[in-house]
## 1
Amino acid sequence: MGYPHQSHPKETVVLSQYFGDAEARSYDGWVKRGGYRALETALGMGREPIVDIVKASGLRGRGGAGFPTGLKWSFMPKEVQKPHYLCCNADESEPGTFKDREIMRWTPHALLEGCAIACHAIGAEIGYIYIRGEFTDPYAIMEKALAEAYARGTLGANAMGKGRRLDLHLHRGAGAYICGEETALMNSLEGKRGNPRIKPPFPAAAGLFGCPTTINNVETLAAVPHILNRGAEWYKGLCLSNPKSTGTKLFSVCGHVRKPGNYEITLGFPLKEMLYDLCGGPPPGRKFKAVIPGGSSVPILTAAEAEGALLDYEGCVAAGTMLGSAGCIVMDDSTDMVYQVMRLAAFYAHESCAQCTQCREGTAWTTKILKRILAGEGEMKDLDLLLDLADQMTGKTICVLSDSCAAPVVSGIKKFRGEFEAYIKGGRRAATA
Amino acid sequence: MSTGGQAQGRAGGHVAEVPKVFVGEGRKELDATLAKYPTRMAGLLPALWMVQRAHGWITPEGMAETADVLGLTPAYVKGVVTFYTMYHQHPVGKHFVQVCTTTPCNVCGAEKVRDAFLKATNAKRLGETSPDGNWTIIEVECLGACGFATPVLIDDDFIESVTPDSVAALVARYR
Amino acid sequence: MSDTVKLTIEGREVEVPAGTSVLEAAKLAGVLIPHYCYHPALPVAGVCRMCLVEIEKAPKLAASCATPVAPGMVVHVGSAQALAARQSVLEFLLINHPLDCPICDQAGECELQDYVFQEGRSGTRYGSYAKRFNPVEDFGPDVLYVGNRCILCTRCVRFMEDVADQAVLNVSERGDRAYIGIVEAEKLDHAWAGNVVDLCPVGALISKDFLHKARAWDLDKTASVCPGCTQGCNIMLDTRDNQVLRVRPRPNPDVNRYFICDTGRLGYAWLNRADRLEVPMLREGDRLVPADWEKALKRVGELAGAASGPRHPWVGLASPGLSCEALDRAAALLKANGGVGAFRVKEETEEPLAGVSDLALRKERAPNVHGALEAGFTRDWEATIAQARVASLVLVLDEWRDGASDGVGSAPMIYIGTTLPEGARRHAAVVLPCTNMSEEDGSFRNLRGRVQRYFQARTAPGMARPAAWILEAIGDVAGVSAGAR
């Protein structure tokens, strides 16, 4: 069920099966729906067999980077010499993305179970779930679920009576997009400014508190119990296009569609079908103009490009963009692309952590130029300047926030240049500015 | 869109004695929190949430107390406070309203929702508390509920699908 | 050999220890990769992105400060791609910079100026936007923060946090609103805080003491050793028009790394004192009358002749601020005349720099305590004073505090000093003007036994001569040969 609407037959409902089902939130309700079976199985297994299953399933990180999850887990030291930690990235803050929020709101125990299994598989006794500060409801729901799981002995010093310590803690963020970046999240959890760290060292070598750490997205971890219950082959079989992209994926669709919301589809699903069949197409009397399929940080597609794209990691790259966090922002022909590109740049300027020069200065400068264009005071050479700045903001910094600012600017100018030129030539005034 | 800025001074003549946060129950809560982490520093964000809950904003006194109890310097604490936009560096109205105006909500008319809040609360401009002291409205970047445009946080209440037309009734509910 | 790595930087092959950063390896190859946030004494931040270089086979440019060398690595510093990236960083750093070099103390030794001049763009593309404004802030006793010039390299924050272990500075806010912050309740008043001024690669942190005093290019720089305590920090004396205007650390990995304390940094005024003893003087009744060196030394010779012999010991009272050369000669004179010497030293609280082992503003606030001990002077001041009462001759060597020159007993006193204290004016038989440490070449022995040279930075006033020269001359007229030393 693609809450808040009814499930569509073309969806493959795994993670979202109980979205909207309030009873699934409770411990008993979750167990009744098959919950915590996978954890019990896992606790009876060694670390390596679990990692192998996840590897074989083809599960890839659902936070945006798409790194193979089993491989990531296998980087953790075999011998536990220092404490190992799990971090669950529930800082969901990529504009356009709102899937993790639904997982936590409706199936909190699915996440707890996934975290517990991951802890066991990576040799960790402690896992932290970092939830963005604005998610007040999901936090309260997770808090309640966590208390239940402890009360039932599913977590704690002797998890499920199997003699294994598994502790999960919630950690509340306080308003910073960049804390969704894994090393920034670790700094934030440690009580620091959320500055991304230089890599290497990678988290598996020195992550949280300087110890080996695995960090996974909410959706990634929530998928793990299903994989353990139903097998790697089953998960691997969920694939409509490229065999490197397996399983189901929650797509958060927002903006100008008739039925915005979360849709769970098998990877490789055509974007066009999602937009028209699942989401009901554009609002009445409108046409699609642009789609940002992977959260605001990925290149913008024109409607025509979007309609030919397949929704998996490779398909999005082939279409000239990225799957990212699968936050699909849809814009119809009423959209002022110049204004929206400015609004995205302003977002990144606001969220830049201030470490790297290109990002700190570049995101703000880019925003200023775009605002000037919107005010009718731009010059043609401003477009070249924007592209040149974007080039220097790409691939030069510690993290990719600066690249993320550049991506919509570059694709916006390349694909909707006429709109920018209309402002510069004085033929157009901002409707919203 | 920025909500903070050093140009604003400290709250005018803030001299009132503020109660200690980390005493009695507060101390117990902090100690329970600290038990989850291997370092005291990791308790900083939770401790600051406690300060904000107790004082309504991150007071200099609260920062100093936090620094003291966690073995940090006040300057360090302030550096962290100013990084995170949800910590109020200045006193705010009785109700603090955060309207998401980032692109996905923006294309759905979030700026009209923002304007409707300003109008309904008599707050003159963003970040400036309404004359009756009840409302502070700010724009916020992506609240992570883009499919429910426009999401608004009123204090800790997360409200989905707010439209310009639904603002007046919403504001009335909080009076 | 597995503990070294061979790589090529700008076409030069170098072999460096494994784990060296590309930036440091380049230094060894004679290539300076421009950088701001990197400093060898601070943890790597990798934030300014100025040190980006092209490494063959790497997918993107690498920050050379944060990239360890690897065998066979081929690094291009001046390639078009790397240069474009650095030009871009410079442009980004300049868009909000006030370009107030004409009134900035850093001008002339500013790394932003230098690198822009070296490889920056010739013009700005920023246009007419207002620049970011931050008010000048008073950070502490000697440090002003000019936020408009700040490039957020965070060297100062890292120094206070990681080296001084007193995190009174922070990065406040985010994005282009960020600035270096301090809280009202705290001050940048750590005993070593002034180092943030040296560490700042631009004119954002400046010394109040040096504010608008001189242009960097008008300063003469002389290698010296700090006279403030027994640590022996290596310093540079910056002079203009024969005045010391600034003291800065001179890197020495074995003594003070890159740092000096504020006491050493700011305690130079006495070197410039105008009320100096400039001419030898001889006692005529109750007056001292000026004389030339020849007459003065002749008088010294007469006094020495009358006072020589083992039954008539000499006594020396010396300042532990004199050079090793002076103290050695003084000790030889005393020894030849059966005498003894002593010194006193002012003691105050020791102020260590937490992040550097064996570096502190030492308790003993004189540079050559260990030179004096090595020469044979003792700390036994009271006993030596007692001996002075029965001595045949008393040598007072720039020891003017607390009445040391008041005359002890009836023996004639030869006073060698930089100034003329009241006691010497009343009691000395001969007064000989000597130079202070900024006016002579010499050496001090620090508390770890390291003898370090310092060089003349200013011309001596009037007829003043280095104490070592004077004592050598006294040796000559007193018939104490160099062999006795």
Note: Chain A touches chain C through 28 residues (CB under 8 Å).
## 2
Amino acid sequence: MNRRPDPGEVAAQTTPVGVVLGSMDATPLEFWIGVAEGRAVQLDDLVVVEERLPAGDTIRFYGLVDQVRKRYEGQPFDSDAFRAAEGSLPVQISYAAHVQVTRLDPEIFVPPQPGTEARVVRGEDFQRALSFDRMHKRMPIGLTRTGEVIYANLEFMDGTRGAHASISGASGVATKTSYATFLLWSLFHSEALGADATNAKALVFNVKGEDLLFLDRPNRKLDAAMQQAYARLGLKPGPFASVGIWAPAKRGRGAVMPDTGSRQDGVQPYLWTLHEFARERLLRFCFAESTEGRSQLGYVIHRVERELEQAARTAQADPALVVDGQQLTTFEELVDLLDGATLDSMVRGAAPGTLDAFRRRLHAAAQRMGHLVRGDADATGKAVAWQDRQVTVVDIHALHATAQSFVVGVLLKKMMEEKEAKGTARPLVFVVLDELNKYAPREGDSPIRDILLDIAERGRSLGISLLGAQQTASEVERRVVANAALRVVGRLDGAEAERAEYAFLGRVGRQRAMLLQPGTMIVAQPEIPVPVLLTFPFPAWATRPDEVAGDGSDPFARARRASGRG
Amino acid sequence: MGSLFCGARLRLLAWDAEYGPEVALDAPVGNGEEVDLAVEVEPARWQPIQPHDAVRPARVVFVDGVRRIDVRLLGTRGDAVFHGLFGSYAVGTVVLQPGSARLGTHVVGRRVVLGAGEALREPVTIAPALTYEPLSTPEREPDAPLRALQSDMRRVEEAVARDAAAGGDALVVADGPLTFEGTPGERVVGYVKRVHDLHLPHSCLPLLAALPAGARTPLFALRHSKRFARYSWFVRLAAPAPGAASLYGLARLEVVASIGAEAARALADQTAALLPGLAPSPVRDPRSPQNLLPIGGLEAHLRTRLGDRRVVAAAIERAVVKEALHEPTS
């Protein structure tokens, strides 16, 4: 993993580019360098200034260039540019770069001496500048534009010292999902996880489009340049090897079929039995919208859950459920039952208005997610088995928001309970969930938000790491964002970039976040005092049907696969 | 209605008052200089000349210098008192080619100048890269050391102008009149920003006042027993705005007479065509329009080469104080 620099590269590792300026304040944490004529310094270059202190120690200031500028020397007039361009006014151009210090070696906080030579560093010095040499377990998370590898400290991903990543960015251009899956790839395929990699699991929710339904298929657009990018990262490109793809069951009775889009083969349907629904107390997840300030309604839900759980315990038979002497095989039957006096007897003393509100909401929810809970014989054994494969993709993109919340809430709740019961943080589970602002919104209260908050706060000790993505971090519950060790930003909308949630970007980072191209992210991590801009390679797995290698325009190949492997 | 100035015709001079007047006409001519107006045109037929087919030179080099007093000194020897100074100057060039103006070479000089014939035997090193060469003048006036510094700088300007003119077709525009010791090159013109001496009879004043921007006067010859003969002409750099003095925006140029009237005429036409385009706006330069853009840019650059005066002065003061503390009291 620790790529040895090629011979010849070592010699080219540092280039003198200029000197520390004395016309601007030089401080231990930031300073400006003047760039010598004929040299170039660009944003994201890493710079080292080595200086001998009077006491005899040598101190090295490492820093990241976060601003470069040129201007005329002196006190020029704006019109001087015209005069200089027409060749009547001689001007001197001052080319300077602002350096944000990332490391002092040793940690003696003195300012650098103006006039001291500054060099752009590459290779091993680059790694040292960003303190990568101090990370015992590190995973590659991208490349700089000059091809240097950027690492993250695994200890901040696996729960040792922190967990979770928060990825923000505008829809469509920020490539949030691609980066989340790239992080997964790196986690599983770099040597960072060590022995943990074998058993570690990922639960990936496919929230939008069909991007994540082809993780197990090679991407035919992967070319030599992309292969090289993977190689630089110390990774071998290819599709995820162990993937389970799950789609919601189609509506209707009889055999359970997956409700899929363009992907037909290898997709398993999922739903829950009525018995499970009652036993596991899943009713609350039917009520996705905020129940805050409606404590009466919350009480009703709680009571009904209790009664159903009781019923499930007494009637042994999975998948069906017997309530009030009635055998229920569909969710509609449960709804109908609760329409009648059964509900009144379950929740004694509740105001009729509250019961009506409950019934109205339950009806509405049943239309959206009722088909995912069945009590017939075909429904058994269709729960998502996320521990069977290394990566489990649960497709929810075609479901109504209520049903989406139901699926996410139920799966995460069960995962938390299982991990709690086990009592160990291993094996690790990585949860990838987009649109976190929908599931853990800043305003309001909902059962699924509670679970995500629980994961954010306790997941670290339970070995659950949430790779959450959202268009706007400002709309996500503060504590969920605050607990993320790795903060990632793709292209941001201008107004969003100004919000306090992105203070870690700094002024220049905010400006740059508005211009980021797909495949480029800014990443902040706990041990590096400045956010770093990086690119990550194009997915080696397909993200669309037409990217699937051997597929695309060849209908015969698709037909062969559909009939063959399935 | 009575006039504001009781009938006197008062007009504004353009330069910032700090810099003194750009037209500073002293006592009438009487320095033994002989002026010949009939070089190009008979004096009676003097008219503004607007060059139409002047060829812009491919290379124009401007030469200029800046100087300053770092600290002033007062010395004693026995009962004699003499003046002195630590001073610095820088001389450099700007090279104009079509579409580009770039700074050329520059020379920095630092001198410790003493009057009344006093002189130091050795250079004085105040700090690394801050060494003052000794210079002496026999004169005793308080201003004599400054004049000596000035003429030392002029010598350097002359050398730089010669170098710039050597082996090339460049037109070299040197600052000030051609007070060179030797004969300057054929393509070296002296550019006089401040008019001390019209050299012309007052009958020419209406012509000067009416000179349109970009036009020049006919050539006139200047002969003096102690200097080489020159051809000279005035160029109007910019048209005066209402309220401006009638002699606004004039610059005088001169070239060594040995090049012949025909060559001088070509140079005069070239400068009249070239220089008005290089005049700065009044907003940009307090000595607009005479302090041309290349010269103003060069001066600003040269001043930075002298270092911060307060820092330099402080270093000299420390050295002098240290010296004073170690001198045996008399």
Note: Chain A is about 30% helix and 25% strand.
